[in-house]
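Task 17 of the worksheet. Students: predict the tertiary structure of the chain below and write it out as structure tokens. Keep your answer in the requested format; marks are given for formatting as well as content.
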Amino acid sequence: MTKRRELGAVDPRELASYAHIEPDIQSHYDQTFGNKVLLPKVGLGIGMLAFMGLRMRNTAVPVSMCALGFATLLDYMRLEHNALAKNKTNEFLQWLIEYRRAKCVVEVHGQAIHREEYRKHFGESNANELFEQYQNILRGK
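Model answer:
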């Protein structure tokens, strides 16, 4: 994800401000960039049921172990390659780029907005109102 390299560190307040758009953004972000080991609990449970069922039918142990390993591997792959979490995190990073850009525009041009040439273009609004309007556009309001 090159966007994360461009942005640098993500402040928890920025994650919290995006939570009204996507309430699960913290878990999606942690799934995409987290360093924790994923434990495939569902796959282990299904695999254990398959293992016990096959053992009750007197199936060979290697076949039963393959059923356990296959179910666990499938669940691990499902957790590791979660496209929804990656897409939601990508949307958040794109929003964050635009949010930071809006803050920079207000900081750089905030004093100049009150000048006459900017009043012609923007009307009678001040820098805070323009920033709020820009944030509302980004939020989709």
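Marker's comment: Helices lie at 2-7, 12-18, 25-33, 41-56, 61-80, 83-109, 116-122, 127-139. The CA atoms of residues 119 and 125 lie 8 Å apart.
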